[in-house]
Amino acid sequence: MVRHSYSFHAGVIWLSIDVLRLRCPDCELTFTHDFELGLQRKSTFFFRKSIVDRCHGRPLSQVAKEYDIAYTTLERWYYLMTAEDVKARIRSAKRICIDEFALRKGHYYAIAALDADTGQVLYIETGRNKETVESVLNAIGQKAQTVITDTAAFMAKAIQTVLPEAEHVLDRFHLIQFCTEALRRRRKYLIEAKSHFKSRFIDRCLSIPPEDLTEEEQGFVREWLEEDWHTKTLYYFLQHVRFVLKSNQFIQAKRRFDELIQRFSFHSCGAVARIIKTFTQRYEAFLDTIISPYSNGIMEGTNNKIKLIKRRGYGYRNEQNLFHRICLETGSHDFW
Fold it and tell me: Where is the Transposase IS204/IS1001/IS1096/IS1165 DDE domain (predicted)?
């Protein structure tokens, strides 16, 4: 008697078959004929595969309790069967997003590579340095045409080493973040000047485009800009950066970007001068970012899903099992 399937109305569906023990006439070794059912103790391969498919998006402990299967048995089935599926996902993607996420915040990190077209995590490697990124790029393949990352310098060096011909696009969010973080550092002055305003309200009003604010909020912003010269300079610089990012053509983007650098280079505001220096050092990458339709937003959303997977599993003893789970839980479910 072996378990072959499961029905919500009938429960486990058993098969009663006669297992044949045969002897090879040449080597005289005995073997079992399982009728290609993939017998393993008291279950068939079809039963194990159907139970494993029900684990996607759910905790293993919950599935084990629902189908009356030992947790360790279900865990072994899951990671043995899904290891091959994870390898099948590693293909030559044309557009790749690369970002880091925390295995243990402040201690251990890992680098994840994601297919920008399908949203599937292709490969994960423990570490956060140039060698780790190179290992990820070598594992995925050499056919990547576009690589989207944040502004980390070690990622740029790794891409230049492994994929020198690929287009390196920086995430637009991080370009805006340069300015919003500088504005946030100035909020201490605003809090002292207007103590009845909350810091989050101030950050929101200064980071959102003026056309998206109400008339009352626009009045508050005008008052704050008149009180502090540095805040005023950073605010206008942020709006100029947004204007540059709205460019549609390469010539237009280059002209606006050059005007931005020329206007704010060697500015008396130290924060603006440092940001412009960063733009100048990564001139080609920032220029490609302006005209590229791709961003790292899908990767940032996947990072939130990774956090959910870690919380749902209450921690993982084996990091490789966590990486398999992440690869299987992300992207299109048509893969199954």
Answer: 96-326
